[in-house]
Design a protein that fits this description.
Metallo-beta-lactamase, Chain A, 2 domains, eight-stranded mixed beta sheet, 20 strands, 20% strand
Length: 526
């Protein structure tokens, strides 16, 4: 692993006796019951930041912070994340035992640079940093994936610049540009800051280096002082195919492990060809050799004289008059005919590459399941894991002493879910996700903001079908970061509490001088 987790206590394994752990799945919740864990969810919407608090055996508090970021498209996001960082410092006194960085997306790590004046070693004492194996610079699989990310980002930035410069953009290309920019927003801040710098700033907060890199090969472990909690690392998967798997409308399909070059090579070559002055590089997306043909820009500028050029100028250009030596045939010669051209349509391949990059990075999310040993109840934090990540752990199992624990058992005993990827359609499987969560005490939190999602044309985020399924599974015990009641002091959710796994709910609103809406919502869980 390269580091030791909090002088962690690995669970000793012996040969399995194929005995499934028997644990309560429903613990009566009454006033006065000491919570097993308290979770403060910050309400930036399209972004994650969660502060977990547990009481240790000696009575002191154990603090774990999972992510801290907001998407670059969020209006006032910088001020909001600084307010969040300030609140974390006040609440914890600057003492964080473990900082978890689930994956390298801006909306999960931006705070460590945007609020660097607060998130620094003068203000915070961070015990150690946990990251997924995919962030390990010495891991061969991580190195290969990082190379793909770098090449893909370079190509997508080029495609975005080409789309920004395109004239006469049609509805399709306009949508492509907006979608591409929203995906790039997960990689860059509003001022162009890079997500890698934010991730590294988070890692630098701990004196203990390097970070602890976790993966599915990590054995379940406990933390000294918290003997009742056991932590399972479910993801991210090692399989390249699993990293690129998604589902739509109940259809699951993998992208081949070597499909990235199929997207990258033609896009990068075409961008290079379009940006080359006087020399045309080989274009893998072009059916002809580089020396065949005439650049459209030269024809439209009238620099090339021929019947073909005249035809192109008359029928495929903006409102240009016919050449002086050609009679006006009809009105068609002076109307804008540029709509016939598909100058930038080739950039549509960027959409496929963007989806693959976004899906792959989300599927590298570190997924942690926190099990309370005395009750068997589980709190699940899947980061932004998409379907490939979820499916990778369906058959996982661990031998603990004389018993065998299966991942599906953990899912069945899950009483609290931090919903993945803001409730998007591809991030919570029906059959192998919510379908396996059978505890009657299930409750959930969704870090989402529907208005922000609509603004950047993400569509249904959160996805209606997932909202309906969650509501049914939890008997309405779902809290969203954009719930209107969170903007009111002492606001109350629609569900009663104590109920299910929820003992109590508290919330705080932002300082009106700084902004509006809820700052955080806190739940005591049993």
């Amino acid at each position: 692993m390269g580091a030791t987790i909090m002088a962690r206590t690995p669970v000793k394994s012996k040969k399995s006796t194929s005995t499934t752990v028997k644990a309560k799945v429903s613990v009566p919740v009454m006033n006065g019951v000491t919570p097993a864990i308290t979770i403060r969810h910050y309400c930036q919407g399209i972004g994650d930041c969660h502060l977990l608090t547990l009481r240790k055996s000696d009575g002191s508090l154990f603090r774990m912070l999972i992510d801290c970021g907001v998407h670059s498209s969020t209006t006032g996001g910088g001020d909001l994340i600084r307010d969040i960082a300030a609140d974390i410092k006040t609440e914890t006194g600057g003492k964080i035992d473990v900082l978890v960085v689930t994956h390298e997306h801006w909306d999960h790590v931006s705070g460590f640079t945007s609020a660097a004046a607060i998130f620094n070693k003068n203000n915070f004492d961070v015990g150690e940093i946990w990251m997924a194996w995919s962030e390990n610079p010495k891991d061969p699989d991580a190195i290969a994936f990082d190379k793909f990310k770098g090449q893909a980002l370079s190509a997508l930035q080029g495609a975005s610049a080409a789309l920004d410069a395109a004239k006469g953009m049609n509805t399709y290309l306009g949508g492509l540009r907006d979608g591409l920019n929203s995906v790039l927003g997960f990689q860059f801040g509003a001022a162009g800051e890079k997500v890698r710098a934010a991730r590294d700033a988070a890692a630098a907060l701990s004196e203990k280096q390097p970070p602890v890199y976790l993966g599915p090969e990590t054995a379940p472990f406990s933390i000294p002082g918290l003997p009742n909690m056991r932590i399972y690392v479910l993801g991210p998967p090692r399989s390249k195919d699993a990293l690129k798997l998604e589902t739509k409308a109940s259809e699951q399909y993998p992208l081949a492990a070597d499909s990235a070059p199929l997207f990258l090579k033609p896009l990068r070559a075409a961008l290079d060809a379009n940006n080359t002055d006087g020399v045309y590089a080989a274009d893998y997306a072009c059916p002809f050799d580089p020396h065949i043909g005439t650049p459209l820009s030269e024809i439209l500028a009238g620099a090339v004289g021929s019947e073909v050029s005249d035809f192109v100028r008359r029928h495929y250009s903006e409102s240009l008059p016919p050449p002086d030596d050609k009679p006006k045939i009809d009105d068609e010669t002076v109307r804008d005919q540029s709509w016939r051209r598909i100058d930038a349509d080739w950039l549509g391949i960027a959409a496929d590459l963007a989806m693959q990059l976004d899906r792959g990075v989300n599927n590298t999310s570190l997924v942690l399941a926190f099990e309370m040993i005395d009750s068997g109840r589980v709190f699940l934090f899947p980061g932004d894991a998409q379907v490939g990540n979820w499916l990778s752990w369906q058959n996982a199992k661990w031998t603990l002493g004389q018993t065998e624990v299966k991942a599906v058992d953990l899912m069945a005993r899950t009483v609290y879910l931090k919903v993945s990827h803001h409730g998007s359609e591809n991030a919570t499987p029906e059959k192998n996700g919510l379908g396996l969560m059978t505890s009657p005490d299930l409750s959930a939190f969704i870090p989402t903001n529907k208005d922000d999602a609509v603004k950047v044309r993400w569509g249904a985020m959160p996805y209606d079908a997932i909202l309906q399924a969650l509501s049914a599974k939890t008997k309405g015990r779902v809290i969203r970061a954009d719930d209107t009641w969170l903007a009111n002091t002492n606001g109350k959710p629609d569900f009663a509490h104590p109920s299910g796994s929820v003992l109590a709910v508290r919330n705080a609103v932002r300082d009106p001088k700084r902004g509006t809406g809820g700052l955080w919502v806190e739940v005591d869980l049993a």
